[in-house]
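hey
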């Protein structure tokens, strides 16, 4: 019993990982896993498949770090399989029931800055409780526990970062396979792995109580130290990276902080586009450091209070306050005017302090805009004319923002609006009108900024297209498509397997998944029809043929009895006196029977009906067999095609 990996190919692992993004029920996940396994291997999947999701454990019901995980347990005693695939979910645009990008915020604070370990902590906890649950279920179902549980880690994007980080720090898995993963960083590992941090602090003479001192060290020396340290801790052959060369995260993997451990296979997902890596590499290490140091001051706020508080800490904008106003009608504004005015006043005061600070840090970009766009021109992302237009509009935005800040200083104290609730106060009304005029002027400046942004957008189409393609390449779908392309396959938006074959100058695409579903559903329906037809025949035989024969037998038995025991039927002659009964004795009965056969129309009707249904079923079988045969003949070189039709998706 070998217990070889069930998910043994990149395409199989990628497609199974992609199921995690589809928010399916457990039964639907099982069906999809069976379907994908059959389509990719042409073999029956292991006998028992169980799904465990982080959302289904009460320990994770209150989790708001953005972590999502799924474990797939394969067990087949006959094949010697006992394997658990722990899948940590990747970065999403938004998280669950909120628009807020919690995963990408973790990418920023947890990986890039290194000051948040919430999702790592939750991923470790999920691995711990799901492993325990699998052992309990094996015990409950009385499965053979002699087959050792093999744990394998899978992850995409942030999920890849989490699973690799767990392997580096805890060595939980026999193998780890990640796709377009966010690389682990030594800033992140220093926060998570105490032993690594103390070794690092000792090596570079840092105060272990002052984490921020790590940002003063040479990135190249830190990278060498971190990679050497972890290569001694684990067998780096247990980590396998599959990377799209166009991927956004791969493009930034050369930035300060990131380390590279394990084997890496790089694939081309877009023949018309290479990467924005050359673009990212032009951003200086000094600027990257400045961004890290700036963001690090907000890490504690993010860890303790979350997304809303970080935005407020950076900008002064109170998101919770603004969102609370969305459901207000006109009267709500009147009744809550005092509270609204008070909070708005506080928010504006905060913005006056924090927005300039933010702008000062964003000035890293402004300061380098000319040389950066010169690089864009050099690399062919923008033309010299587009560069000139963009720089002009950015300068205009700076002036508009300065004008808004001046207008904000003119606004009167918002608390003065409260007396308006008692009208006829002339000075207050005039002051209110003046403030309204200022707000209109601010609105106009904001509209000007929006127009400038539109012009910038129009003049950076090629650049935005490159970034968009880099972001697209990050998705599992793009990786799956690239892996399938070499095998003459592709997949549609629903994950259906499409076989592709060139015939002359034409490309023919055939949806194998749909064809198999039609074939198997057709077989199922025909089998059900055959079962019903068999029951109808049996019922006809019981209710007509057998019943007629049974009634006939009963009649003949009665005749035989009358002929053999005539005295038993003396009463049929009537009632006589005792003397007469001694004379008139029934001594013999002879029956001249004439029993007609069953009306021939009855079997004719039924047999005609049965024959019709049998022909229809036969036609149906030939039709769906034609579907299978067409695929087999058209793709005769792919031996799995025939097997796929004969294996049930479940």
């Amino acid at each position: 019993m070998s217990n070889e990996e069930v998910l043994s190919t990149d395409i199989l692992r990628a497609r199974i990982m992609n199921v995690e993004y589809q928010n399916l029920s457990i039964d639907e996940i099982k069906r999809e896993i069976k379907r994908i396994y059959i389509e990719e291997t042409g073999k029956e999947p292991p006998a028992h498949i169980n799904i465990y999701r982080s959302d289904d454990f009460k320990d994770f019901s209150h989790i708001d770090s953005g972590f999502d995980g799924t474990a797939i347990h394969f067990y087949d005693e006959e094949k010697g399989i006992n394997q658990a695939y722990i899948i940590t979910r990747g970065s999403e645009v938004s998280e669950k029931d909120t628009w807020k990008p919690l995963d990408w915020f973790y990418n920023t604070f947890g990986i890039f800055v290194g000051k948040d370990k919430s999702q790592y902590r939750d991923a470790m906890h999920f691995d711990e409780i799901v492993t325990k649950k699998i052992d309990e279920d094996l015990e409950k179902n009385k499965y053979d526990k002699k087959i050792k549980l093999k744990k394998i880690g899978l992850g995409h994007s942030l999920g890849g970062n989490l699973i690799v980080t767990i392997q580096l720090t805890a060595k939980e898995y026999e193998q780890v396979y990640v796709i377009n993963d966010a690389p682990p960083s030594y800033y992140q590992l220093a926060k998570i792995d105490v032993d690594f941090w103390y070794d690092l602090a000792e090596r570079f003479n840092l105060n272990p109580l002052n984490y921020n001192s790590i940002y003063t060290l040479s990135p190249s020396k830190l990278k060498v130290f971190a990679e050497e340290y972890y290569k001694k801790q684990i067998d780096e052959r247990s980590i396998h990276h599959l990377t799209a060369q166009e991927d956004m995260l791969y493009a930034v993997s050369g930035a300060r902080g990131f380390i590279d451990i394990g084997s890496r296979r790089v694939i081309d997902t877009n023949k018309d586009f290479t990467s924005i890596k050359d673009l990212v590499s032009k951003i200086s290490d000094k600027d990257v450091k400045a961004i890290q140091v700036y963001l690090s001051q907000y890490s504690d706020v993010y860890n303790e209070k979350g997304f809303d508080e970080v935005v407020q800490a950076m900008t002064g904008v109170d998101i919770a306050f603004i969102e609370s106003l969305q459901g207000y009608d006109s009267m709500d504004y009147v009744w809550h005017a005092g509270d609204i005015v008070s909070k708005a006043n506080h928010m504006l005061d905060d913005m006056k302090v924090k927005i300039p600070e933010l702008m000062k840090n964003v000035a890293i970009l402004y300061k380098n805009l000319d040389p950066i766009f010169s690089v864009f021109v050099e690399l062919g992302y923008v033309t010299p004319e587009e560069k000139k237009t963009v720089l002009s509009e950015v300068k205009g935005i700076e002036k508009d923002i300065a004008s808004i800040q001046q207008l904000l200083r003119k606004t009167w104290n918002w608390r003065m609006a409260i007396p308006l609730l008692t009208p006829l106060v002339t000075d207050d009304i005039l002051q209110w009108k003046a403030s309204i005029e200022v707000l209109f002027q601010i609105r106009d400046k904001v509209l000007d900024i929006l127009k400038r942004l539109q012009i910038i957008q129009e003049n950076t189409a090629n650049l935005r297209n490159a970034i968009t393609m880099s972001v697209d390449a990050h998705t599992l779908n793009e990786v799956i498509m690239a892996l399938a392309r070499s095998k003459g396959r592709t997949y549609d938006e629903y994950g259906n397997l499409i076989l592709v074959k060139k015939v002359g100058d034409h490309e023919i695409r055939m949806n194998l998944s749909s064809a198999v579903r039609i074939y198997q559903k057709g077989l199922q329906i025909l089998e059900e029809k055959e079962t019903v037809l068999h029951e109808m025949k049996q019922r006809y035989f019981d209710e007509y043929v057998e019943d007629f024969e049974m009634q006939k037998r009963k009649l003949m038995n009665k005749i035989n009895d009358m002929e053999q025991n005539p005295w038993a039927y003396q009463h049929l002659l009537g009632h006589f006196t005792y003397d007469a009964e001694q004379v008139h004795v029934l001594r013999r009965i002879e029956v001249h029977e004439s029993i007609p056969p069953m009306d021939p129309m009855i079997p004719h009707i039924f047999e005609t009906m049965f024959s019709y249904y049998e022909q229809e079923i036969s036609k149906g079988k030939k039709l769906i067999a034609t579907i299978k045969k067409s695929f087999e003949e058209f793709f005769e070189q792919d031996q799995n095609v025939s097997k796929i039709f004969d294996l049930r998706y479940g």
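The chain is about 60% helix and 10% strand. The chain has a mean pLDDT of 77.
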